[in-house]
Amino acid sequence: MKLTTVQEQQLKDRDIPVSAIEYQLNRFKNGFPLVTLVREATVGDGIARLSDENQLRYKELYSFRQNDISITKFVPASGAASRMFKFLHEFVAAYDSDKETIASYIERNDAALVEKFTNGWKKFPFSNIVLKHCRDLYADWNDLSLDKQQFYFAKAILDKDQLNYSGMAKGLVPFHNYGDHIATAFEEHLYEAASYAPVNNKAQVHFTIAPDAQTDFKTNLEQAKTKVENETGVKLDVTFSFQKPSTDTLAVSLDLQPLTDSNGEFILRPAGHGALLQNLNDLEAQLIFIKNIDNVASRSTNSQTSHYKQVIAGLLIELQDQTHTYIRALQEQKYKTTLEKEIVTFLQQSLSVTLPDSFEKSIPDHRKETLIALLNRPVRVCGMVKNQGEPGGGPFWVKEPNGAISLQIVESAQVDPNDNEQQSIASRGTHFNPVDVVCGMHDYMGNPFDLNDFSDPDTGFITTKSRLGRKLKGQELPGLWNGGMALWNTVFVEVPLETFNPVKTVNDLLKPAHQA
Fold first, then answer.
1. Residue 186 and residue 220: Cα distance in Å, rounded?
2. Is 230 exposed, middle or buried (0-12, 13-18, 19+ CB in 10 A)?
3. What residue ranges in 427-506 does DSSP mark as E strands?
4. Which helix (DSSP H) or strand (DSSP E) does residue 189 occupy?
5. Which of 76, 244, 442, 483 is most buried as measured by Cβ atoms within 10 A of its Cβ?
6. What is the three-state SS of 28-93?
7. Angle 364-375/302-332 helices, nearest 10 degrees?
8. What is the pLDDT of residues 117-150, one digit of tens each?
9. CA separation for the pair 492, 397 (Å, rounded)
10. Which residues are CB-neighbours of 239 under 8 A, at least 6 positions away?
11. Distance from C-alpha of 20 to C-alpha of 271, rounded to nearest angstrom
12. In this predicted model, what pLDDT tens digit does every residue of 319-333 receive, in sequence order?
């Protein structure tokens, strides 16, 4: 591929090899293969339902080992709050308070979200802040009609020259009102980490953020850190990182030509949450909890969340201990059929791993190498909640190109929309991925895995976007917990729906879990 001097320098500055650009162009041309679903994962077939006795056992194991391992909570938090307020932007842009009532707007547009917003407008965690702002701004506030008050209330939330919640990082939007204090999602994650992730009374929390939000996050940290530490008795070690420019991908026209700007540079786009695999790979902790920034409830409901985090962490420790024991046994002992059978049973029953068809016919040395390779992988335990129709991925059994069957978290975009059988399997999914993950990051010798070795590059996405009114195609890397972890040893565990409290629209803050 021939590049201009400007493009060569651009790629050099971002640490993007030319081969990556050529690879992306080839992917745009040939696409990504779709997954082949075998069946949905269900309780008893890919998803474990833990008894009270086992929950207690795993929780106690985690508590016993917690201070002897390094632990970090990893929170992707680079997203803007704009999507939370999308329907509100549409309302403010289209509504004319001098020509119609809000009720007529709602009826005319079938705007159920606006109706819910106006019904609960004084119950949001930030309502008192917005109302005070409006009273200060409008001298005749008390004389305004209810419709005008609610319109100006919404406008104050959105306008860049007013409170501008829509322009904030999602993690910095006021989430929970405790009367004397309003906490952001960012702050709530600090409390959560203190409840289940401290090591010797010190909790490490890592947030991936957008560069332009760094100052605001650090300001919120300064405001919250001492308060959280005093109330929990846990010291906080909070770090930040940005999505790496080297992970950005090309934007191309609909006829697959690379798009450039007025300076002749490639138009590059962030490659989705799969790009965060590099940030995760940089962390040194042995055990890492992953949770999205918007999935955090008020502290009054935190005990159940904390309980299940400790449970799945204990399960991970037990599984990892066993894999390490088996690897050492294979390396140190003379190969025995009894040991092989025991390990095969463990792989199949505890890790849902299928062996290659050639395994039984292989000579002992090859079978030994195969077992070590299957055991010596990062381990993840993922909480799964019952499917309530939320958008996003779910747990499925997937057939790999080599014929093996594995457990994967699959997004709807990965399934062939024109294959009725595949769509039928996808629609039968009983559970949903809430991004409630705990990861075992080190091998049996205590060395960190290179996570790039356990990602499946064939599971990326091609998306259609728009820029300055022009349609374009973008490319996303395999999702962090999808193809980004495709070759990990994976265990799915059912967790209660009550542990999943995302805020996808501002109206979700009216739900009981967010009413502190």
1. 8
2. exposed
3. 431-440, 461-467, 470-476, 489-494
4. helix 185-196
5. 483
6. HHHCCCCCEEEEECEECEEEECCCHHHHHHHHHHHHHHHHHCCEEEEEECCCEHHHHHHHHHHHHH
7. 160
8. 999 999 999 999 999 999 999 999 999 999 999 9
9. 11
10. 204, 205, 206, 207
11. 13
12. 999 999 999 999 987
Mean per-residue pLDDT pooled into runs of 10, the chain (516 residues)? 94 97 96 96 97 98 98 97 96 94 96 98 98 97 97 97 96 96 98 98 98 98 98 98 97 95 95 96 98 96 94 99 97 86 97 90 92 97 91 90 92 94 95 96 98 96 85 94 97 96 96 92
Give the Cα separation of 297 and 195 in Å (integer).
Answer: 13
Query: Distance between CA atoms of 343 and 109, rounded to whole angstroms?
Result: 60
Q: How many helices (H) and strands (E) does the chain have?
A: 15, 18
- Take residue 155 and report the two structure tokens written for it: 């406008």
Which residues are paired to 30 by β-bridges? none
454: which residues sit within 8 A by CB, 6+ positions away?
377, 378, 485, 486, 487, 488
**CA 395 – CA 492 distance, rounded (Å):** 8
Q: Which long-range contacts (CB under 8 A, 24 or more apart) does 97-105 make?
A: 97/145, 97/147, 97/148, 97/151, 101/147, 102/147, 102/150, 102/151
Element (H, E) at 394: strand 394-399
CB 269 within 8 A of CB 474: yes
CA 187 to chain centre: 18
Per DSSP (E only), the strands in 218-280 are: 235-241, 249-250, 268-269
Q: Hey, where are the domains in the chain? A: 44-71+257-391+434-514, 82-160, 170-247
Q: What is the pLDDT of residue 403?
A: 85
- Cα separation, 204 vs 236, whole angstroms: 6
Q: Are 175 and 45 in contact (CB under 8 A)?
A: no
In 3D space, the residue among 243, 244, 252 whose CA is nearest the CA of residue 463 turns out to be 252
What is the three-class DSSP state of 126?
coil
| Helix, strand, coil percent content, the chain, rounded in steps of 5 | 45, 20, 35
pTM over 0.85: yes
Report the C-alpha gap between 305 and 311 in whole angstroms. 10
CB 384, CB 373: distance < 8 Å: no
Q: What are phi and psi of 353, to 5 degrees?
A: -95, 135
Tokens of 492: 């799915």
Two tokens, residue 502: 């995302």
Q: Per-residue DSSP letters for 329-352?
A: HHHHSPP-HHHHHHHHHHHHHHS-
Q: Strands 287-291 and 431-440, how do they pair?
A: antiparallel
For residue 130, give both structure tokens.
Answer: 């917005």
